[in-house]
Amino acid sequence: MASCPSSSSLWTLQQQKILTLLLYIVTLFSIITSSAGCPYTTIFSFGDSITDTGNLCFGSPSPPSHGCLAPYGETYFGHPTGRYSNGRLIIDFIAESLGIPFVKPYQGIKNGDVRNWTKEEGVNFAVSGATALNVSFFEKRGLHIFTNDSLSVQLGWFKELLPSICTSSSGCKNVFEKSLFLVGEIGVNDFKLFFSWGRSVAEIKTYVPHLINAISSTISDLIDVGAQTLAVPGNYPLGCGALYLTWFESNNKNDYDEYGCLKWLNNFVEYFNKRLQAEINQLQELHPHAKIIYFDYYNAALPLYHFPTKFGFKGLKACCGAGGAYNVNFSKGCGDEGVKACENPSKYICWDGAHLTEAANKLIARYLLKGSFTATHKFGDL
């Protein structure tokens, strides 16, 4: 991780870079609270651990220690909630900004562990470890996975629950015109699987159209059911994450940028995000009556990694882990016996290697709610 440059001219340039990023404002908060004088009162969400508020923990016969046991949740909730952080996620901060309850997990509602859910609240279908692609995609290529909580499965859960939310097309229209649909982020677990099976970046790029199609199909299906406003996040700069810095640690200095992030991995994520944005643009043209917003998680998070001290952070290490250069140990991780979290998680960007702290989630959510790092093909009369 590079410290502040000694050259004043270079530092001025870096300040300008920050300002350029932070001044890209298209006020999302006004989007989600103004339009037709109808603030959104409901959130329906799909994705993986970045958005999961408890589905994996509630839906597993033997919940994993990772995410489901202390010290997860210790900062805000005081106990584990199934969120992969020490506290609130981006979806929680979005809910707070709208003045609505945190979005409850579908699996907890289904099995009765969450008993105070009402149909006016919305539902979270995101599951930690979920892939964009179905298990059949992997199996056809001789690749085996042990879970199938893909986007299409989550969409199926949504449709199963739909009669409990609304019973007529007009009733659904009334609910969904006040609903924000959060689709993602998703795809990281697909990439992790491909990398773990030794696939090259060149080969994985050939799978990207399939991932984009899976996300696009989900968006289209939701619009067909009645969704009117959808936010679709891209992926984070994985090359700055403690898990990936440990996994792909290299002796070649050229693999890293000046901030200590893996260039090749971030380049790949940018490749994916650009294609996702292009697909969103096409979908917006096909569905002009809907509002499809791109959430730029990548550029919202990047300044935190590039200039950590400016945001009160220490650097790239994980807060909760079992040692190593980035406090990531693949044989033992956060939630396992004997593994402790750092004393002050608010000083860290990374919580457990793969996920962010509440402090980082809060900053990213703030940017998104201000409209920084959001985009849509057509704003129309928003």
UniProtKB/TrEMBL annotation:
State whether keyword rRNA-binding applies. no
- Which InterPro entries would you find in this protein's record? GDSL, SGNH_hydro_sf, SGNH_plant_lipase-like
Q: Which Pfam families match?
A: Lipase_GDSL
| Domain of life per record | Eukaryota
Keywords, ordered alphabetically: Glycoprotein, Hydrolase, Signal
The molecular function GO annotations come to: hydrolase activity, acting on ester bonds
Transmembrane spans? none
Regarding protein family, the annotation reads:
Belongs to the 'GDSL' lipolytic enzyme family.
Q: What is this protein called?
A: GDSL esterase/lipase
Instruction: Supply the source organism for this entry.
Output: Acacia crassicarpa
